[in-house]
Design goal:
Elements (H helix, E strand, L loop, with lengths): L2 H9 L36 H9 L17 E5 L5 E4 L3 E2 L7 E2 L7 E6 L6 E6 L5 E6 L9 E4 L4 E5 L10
Antiparallel strand pairs: 1-2, 1-9, 3-4, 4-8, 5-6, 6-7, 7-8
Length: 169
């Protein structure tokens, strides 16, 4: 059984109350509304794997992204619309197997509650195209204490000094 099918099936079960979970409160409210564009518009621009992560909320295998090892200064963009999401100065090695950041670029993420694994989590998306990026947790390093755990397939890295590509619409 595919992981996605299993998770969808489990989501149909009644959710258990999880009082006292410190991850229950979203860390940041949505600041920008995603454009009203059909997700199918992005399919020809992305690999099947990237499309599945961004617009079907799939998750890549931990440790599979070359961006885990990326250490150069630069900017991480949404792989679909090219909105800048993270600056490399906020990237750190979390040990999770996914690129992790201490904070996004202000106003470029939208968040929502996710109960897919029964434990409430805060899922975040590109505020422009709505592409699923990952989840934010409150176990990151000081001073913010946030870990923005991102799918590498959902990102496009541009080294500092190179021109950022134009936003795709």
């Amino acid at each position: 059984m595919k992981r996605r099918t299993l998770l969808k099936s489990l989501a149909l079960l009644p959710a258990l109350p999880l009082a006292g979970n410190s991850l229950a409160a979203p860390l940041a409210p949505p600041s920008v509304t995603a454009l009203d564009t059909p997700h199918s518009r992005w399919r020809p621009l992305l690999s099947d794997e990237a499309y599945a992560v961004l617009f079907e909320e799939d998750t890549e295998r931990p440790g599979s992204s070359p961006l885990n090892q990326e250490k150069r200064p630069g900017t991480y963009l949404c792989a679909a619309c090219y909105l800048p999401l993270f600056d490399s100065q906020h990237k750190y090695e979390s040990g999770t197997g996914w690129p992790s950041f201490t904070q996004p670029i202000a106003g470029h993420m939208a968040t929502k509650r996710d109960f897919k694994l029964f434990i409430p989590r805060t899922e975040y998306h590109c505020a422009r195209c709505g592409g699923h990026q990952g989840h934010v947790f409150n176990d990151g390093p000081p001073p913010r204490g946030e870990r923005w755990c991102n799918n590498g397939l959902a990102l496009h890295f541009v080294p500092r000094g190179e021109a950022l590509p134009e936003l795709r619409s």
